Amino acid sequence: QVQLQESGPGLVKPSETLSLTCAVSGFSISSGHYWGWIRQTPGKGLEWIASIFYSGNTYYNPSLESRVTISVDTSKNQFSLKMGSVTAADTAIYYCAKHRDTGFDYDLAYWGQGTLVTVSP
Amino acid sequence: DIVMTQSPDSLAVSLGERATINCKSSQSLLYTSNNKNYLAWYQQRPGQSPKVLIYWASTRESGVPDRFSASGSGTDFTLTISSLQTEDVAIYYCQQYYSIPLTFGGGTTVEIK
């Protein structure tokens, strides 16, 4: 059974960098499949941020691409998100997820429980 | 970006009655080379993360009760709960994975009448 667990600071100051990690268990990231980050806010709902393949191939939401980096660490079976120059608008629940199959163009079949990140001085 | 529009925003249905949720995409989600619609439906119960119910527009996820069904093609899709149960109280989202950026509908809240 695939399990994903997000971790990272719950509070980030404006203009700083948000850093989150998703630890994967029950499935080897190196086996393939895409892994992604999605966030949820009351105002904008669910917003896909980025996805990455174990080899490092990435896809980004163009609206966030200039501030976001997604990376993978196969030795630790985890992947990460960095978002720079954060503002209050980046306050959200951040989820990590696994695409269903080996391609990017599949639904998000497994989700972590989510972690709340608040951007505040 | 493909805009996903759900309707209604919310609905209240009596236990055992049918609930129907609509989702419309601003562009066709049908990939003609494989005849697949790149659309999924998710359920988010209070305090939980989203959970996939349906993918490829009509394929039920393993373990999902058969009271959940979905249909549609191209730009118009429907999720139906044939006999509403208390555990179905949730927000339901459609999502397209046809093109970047992946986008979600605004959600439909289902409550018990």
N→C terminal distance of chain B: 36 Å
Number of helices of chain A: 0
**Count of strand segments of chain A:** 11
| Helix count from the secondary structure assignment of chain B | 0
Q: What would the average pLDDT of chain B be, to the nearest integer?
A: 98
Helix content of chain B: under 10%
Look at the helices and sheets of chain A and give the structural class.
mainly beta
Q: Outline of chain A, from the CA principal axes? A: globular
Tertiary shape of chain B: globular
Mean pLDDT across residues of chain A = 96
User: Major β-sheet of chain B, in short?
Assistant: 7 strands, mixed
Question: How would you summarize the topology of this molecule?
Answer:
The complex is a heterodimer of chains A (121) and B (113).
Chain A: E1 3-7, E2 11-12, E3 18-25, E4 34-41, E5 45-53, E6 58-60, E7 68-73, E8 78-83, E9 92-99, E10 108-111, E11 115-119
Parallel strand pairs in A: 2-11
Antiparallel strand pairs in A: 1-3, 3-8, 4-5, 4-9, 5-6, 7-8, 9-10, 9-11
Chain B: E1 4-7, E2 10-13, E3 19-25, E4 30-31, E5 36-37, E6 39-44, E7 51-55, E8 59-60, E9 68-73, E10 76-81, E11 90-96, E12 103-104, E13 108-112
Summary tags:
heterodimer; A: 121 residues; mainly beta; 7-stranded mixed beta sheet; 4-stranded antiparallel beta sheet; 0% helix; B: 113 residues; globular
